[in-house]
Amino acid sequence: MKRLKYIIILIILWLFPQMIFAQGPGEFRTAEGPIHITSQRLEANHKGRLITFVGDVVAKQKDFILYSDRLILYLDKEGKEIEKILARGNVRIVQGKRRATCQEATYYHRERKLILLGDPVVREGDNWVRGWRITYYIDEEKSVAEGKGQQRVTVTIVPGQGGK
């Protein structure tokens, strides 16, 4: 059980780093360096404090890549920091051998919480976890995979593979 906890934590930890709004509408910075975002279209709603990237969205930071149909950044009142990040539609996250897929991924900056919905699957090598919802509480190093109705949590662990 302890090994499962560590595998889930290691797999999910890399999914959404803390993001801080930087210079331009397609570039953001974190302690790990700049994040470059490309898409077919950019919609900036200054009054609503939203920045929306639409169509073939790709967000890259070093070896971290997020793909989605739409990426919405919710800014704070001053428009300087990101409160929430929402990736929707065909969400795919890749970092080295780690990858996750789902239909919706939401990162809450203040709570430092990541929620994956829409048939989320998180993989590292041959190890994987699937559920109705997967939530990771970054500061607590706690993850919760939940089932709903007939959809149960499913985990496959291959000894000698994956996390430390």
Structural write-up:
By secondary structure, the protein is mainly beta. The protein has one domain: Lipopolysaccharide (LPS) transport protein A like domain (lipopolysaccharide transport protein A fold), CATH 2.60.450. It has one helix at residues 2-13, and strands spanning 20-21, 27-30, 33-38, 41-45, 50-61, 64-75, 82-95, 98-108, 113-117, 121-124, 127-130, 133-137, 142-146, 154-156. Strands 1, 2, 3, 4, 5, 6, 7, 8, 9, 10, 11, 12, 13 and 14 form a 14-stranded antiparallel sheet that branches. β2 (27-30) and β3 form a beta hairpin.
Label this structure with key terms.
56% strand, 14-stranded antiparallel sheet, lipopolysaccharide transport protein A fold, 14 strands, globular, disordered N terminus
N- to C-terminal distance: 14 Å
Largest sheet: 14 strands, antiparallel
> Regions with pLDDT < 50 over 5+ consecutive residues?
1-27
CATH C-level: Mainly Beta
Task: Give me the CATH superfamily.
Answer: Lipopolysaccharide (LPS) transport protein A like domain
Give the secondary structure arrangement, pairings included.
Blueprint: H1 2-13, E1 20-21, E2 27-30, E3 33-38, E4 41-45, E5 50-61, E6 64-75, E7 82-95, E8 98-108, E9 113-117, E10 121-124, E11 127-130, E12 133-137, E13 142-146, E14 154-156
Short description:
The protein is mainly beta and 164 residues long.
